[in-house]
């Protein structure tokens, strides 16, 4: 691998936000569509060059952790945050010490892992267009055992203040979208936790591959192709993905025409599809989203992200979020800016 020469010490700080996905889940890894927004909370990483060692010090959720690994060391059995940093450091060919802080809820399904990975990549000096940086980050997460798509990294990289981001994973294209005027985004943490790496996420990816072997790319498939799928479970998986891509497209139109009611309906339908056809919801996520849906001033609600726990997102009339009390952590969020290099070049 290439190594830097010279004695100058390089130091860089980067900040990358988490994300909430408004609609379009389990569509990224089959080249579909999604509409996430970057959160106003982020992870900050300061990197200082340090030859052959990767040292990571984190101060997250009140817990301090420290780990180190040689640039060329076999990362087997190391924690994922260390493997990710080592993988990215290898790409730039130099080690370093990384100091990590965050105001993002960790492990709540708001992409704390992608925020960390993107912040490390930028702090290490990885540059390029958002899609290429996102792919380096995806590879690093895969090296640490999480075979994720590109939704979270792209939301973190391409997000913009007060906007959602329409992501097209086949065209590798993104567009900023304004949510209907007079609305706000509300997030409720179900407090149920399940790590993606150990969950049924990988099974869903296999199902997606199996469906595509039968009917071709899901991103361009129509619902008429469903009849030809023999296996009932695979048919339901395909129905979710195809209809979810349609819903994202429709939701973007509803957002652009200021139709919050229809946007909310699309969110409700998305939840139903994720729960009944994709089997990634839980009784708690169903209960929280149903409670939100029946709260006055809420247009729609759905689980957000990979599922099996984590958060529920709702679109509500402005001013309504503050009065929602389900006895769970609840936030009204204004979408924030995407990842940036704060300091250094
Ligand atoms: C997780 C993954 C993403 C995406 C979502 C589901 O957040 O990291 O790549 O697949 O689940 O939409």
Structural write-up:
The protein is an alpha+beta fold and 345 residues long. Helices cover 33% and strands 26% of the residues. It is built from eight helices and twelve strands. The protein has helices at residues 80-92, 112-123, 130-143, 151-158, 201-215, 232-256, 260-276, 283-293; strands spanning 11-23, 33-49, 53-60, 63-70, 96-102, 164-168, 173-177, 183-189, 298-303, 311-317, 330-333, 340-343. A hairpin with a 4-residue loop joins strand 6 (164-168) and strand 7. Helix 2 packs across helix 3 (130-143). The model has no long low-confidence stretch (mean pLDDT 94). Bound molecules: alpha-D-galactopyranose. Alpha-D-galactopyranose is lined by residues 25-26, 28-29, 148-149, 151-152, 196, 305-306.
Protein traits:
Alpha-Beta Plaits, binds alpha-D-galactopyranose, single chain, 33% helix, Ribosomal Protein S5, domain 2, alpha+beta, 2 domains
Tally of individual helices: 8
Summed over residues and divided by their number, the pLDDT gives a mean of: 94
CATH-assigned fold name of the largest domain: Ribosomal Protein S5, domain 2
State the order of secondary-structure elements, H for helix, E for strand: EEEEHEHHHEEEHHHHEEEE
Uncertain runs: none
Q: How much strand?
A: 25-35%
Structural class category: alpha+beta
CATH architecture classification of the largest domain: 2-Layer Sandwich
- Oligomeric state, counting identical vs distinct chains: single chain
Count all strands and give the number: 12
Largest sheet: 8 strands, mixed
End-to-end Cα distance, whole Å, is: 22 Å
The CATH top-level class label of the largest domain? Alpha Beta
Mass-distribution shape: globular
Kindly provide the radius of gyration, computed on alpha-carbon positions and rounded to a whole number of angstroms.
20 Å
Helix proportion range = 25-40%
Bound molecules: alpha-D-galactopyranose
Number of domains: 2
């Amino acid at each position: 691998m290439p190594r830097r020469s010279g004695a100058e010490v390089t130091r860089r700080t980067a900040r990358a936000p988490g994300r909430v996905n408004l609609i379009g889940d389990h569509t990224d890894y089959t080249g579909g569509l999604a509409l996430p927004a970057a959160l106003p909370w982020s992870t900050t990483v300061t990197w200082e060059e340090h030859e052959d060692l990767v040292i990571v010090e984190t101060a997250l959720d009140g817990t301090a952790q420290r780990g180190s690994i040689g640039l060329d060391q076999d990362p087997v059995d190391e924690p994922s945050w260390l493997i990710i940093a080592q993988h990215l450091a290898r790409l730039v060919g130099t080690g370093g010490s990384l100091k990590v802080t965050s105001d993002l809820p960790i492990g709540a399904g708001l992409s704390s892992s992608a925020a960390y990975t993107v912040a490390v990549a930028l702090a290490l000096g990885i540059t390029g267009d958002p899609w290429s940086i996102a792919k380096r980050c995806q590879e690093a997460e895969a090296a640490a055992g999480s075979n994720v798509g590109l939704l979270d990294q792209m939301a973190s990289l391409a997000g913009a203040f007060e906007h959602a981001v329409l992501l097209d994973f086949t065209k590798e294209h993104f567009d900023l979208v304004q949510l209907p005027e007079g609305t706000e985004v509300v997030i409720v943490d179900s407090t149920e936790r399940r790590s993606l790496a150990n969950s049924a996420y990988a099974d869903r990816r296999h199902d997606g591959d199996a469906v595509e072997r039968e009917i071709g790319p899901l991103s361009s498939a129509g619902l008429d192709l469903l009849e030809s799928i023999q296996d009932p479970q695979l048919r339901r998986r395909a129905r979710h993905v195809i209809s979810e891509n349609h819903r994202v497209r429709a939701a973007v139109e509803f957002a652009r025409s200021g139709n919050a009611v229809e946007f909310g309906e699309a969110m409700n339908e998305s939840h139903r599809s994720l729960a009944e056809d994709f089997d990634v919801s839980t009784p708690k996520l169903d209960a929280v989203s149903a409670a939100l849906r029946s709260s006055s001033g809420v247009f729609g609600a759905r689980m957000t992200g990979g599922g099996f726990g984590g958060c529920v997102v709702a679109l509500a009339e402005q001013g309504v979020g503050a009065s929602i009390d389900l006895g769970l952590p609840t936030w009204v969020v204004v979408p924030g800016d995407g990842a940036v290099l704060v300091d250094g070049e």
